[in-house]
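Justification of computing resources. Each target in the renewal requires a structure prediction run like the one illustrated here; the chain below, 361 residues long, is used simply to show the kind of job we budget for.
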Amino acid sequence: MKFLILVLCLAQLWGCHAAPPGLGLAYRELNCDDPETEQAALVAVDYINNHSSRGYKHTLNQIDKVKVWPRRPMGEVFELEIDTLETTCHVLDPTPVVNCPVRQLKEHAVEGDCDFRVLKQDGQFLVLFAKCHSSPDSAEDVLKVCPGCALLAPLNDTRVVRAVEAALTVVNAGSNGSYFQLLEVTRAQLVPLPPSTYVEFAVAATDCIAKEVTDPAKCNLLAEKQYGFCKATFNEKAVGDAAEVTCTVFQTQPMLLQPQPDTNTPTTGVATAMPIPPSANLPAAAMVVGPLVVAAPPPSAPVNRAHYDLRNTFGGVASVESASGEAFQVGKAHTAVEPGMAAATRPLVRPCPGRIRHFKI
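Resulting structure tokens:
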């Protein structure tokens, strides 16, 4: 009898641990490619991008698992495991993620791995829990696809720091308005042929005039933030250590692209391109600027990191739980199809994992 009681107690403890808090013990399974599942997954991806202040926007690549739990007194919670891919749009770029190109394998792609709980209630999806991490593709896989391609380099590599310093000098030398301050270095690659350093970095306009700056430390970011994103190639073999730079300056933004709880729609916008002339068009005397100001990485980020890890996205911790969540209005609900019970007008598909939208890392 004592053994039976012990078994029953252990079973109850296991059940409490296995089910998310506040949910019933019974759940239903949807196909990972069911439209209702995809709606929840897209809300999760929007949540990532709207809560990131560093790195690049991510896009949905694959839905790995889904369970739908009943939630008392009403609603359902979608428990999701999803894979994402890094795009080429910085998170401060107001371009909608659907218009952002996915970074390709030969460019050393980065994949995100996320767990989410998304509440669906009264025609709305609300993110209750989020946990993510991301990692670059292996060097071996990149070199199989493109043997001569450059791999990601540590962002604190001395060659990378020097390339960014030179590129920022070019940016400000070519600016007829504000002096731009470095926000973060987002990507770097050491190109073997010709020997050069490729960097990508984000900048922000300050209240100083670029042509008049003598002490960059006295410059402050504008009240209405204006951000830019730059790509540069620095050739140490060239005369004068030439840096070729192109930048896109986005429209003035009254605040960071990070919504507060209970926001009904994600922030979107259109990027306005304002090219910065390459160094070849600038006089040598203009290539003088103050010391480089680099934003400090999060405390949890490794010193030799080569990319921004999504595990640092949600307030510098691995996960976030919210009582109110993040609200998103959706269209009419789709009827869920249980595995093995597909409608006659709809072919039976493998429940999970779902289709790969871009490519698998």
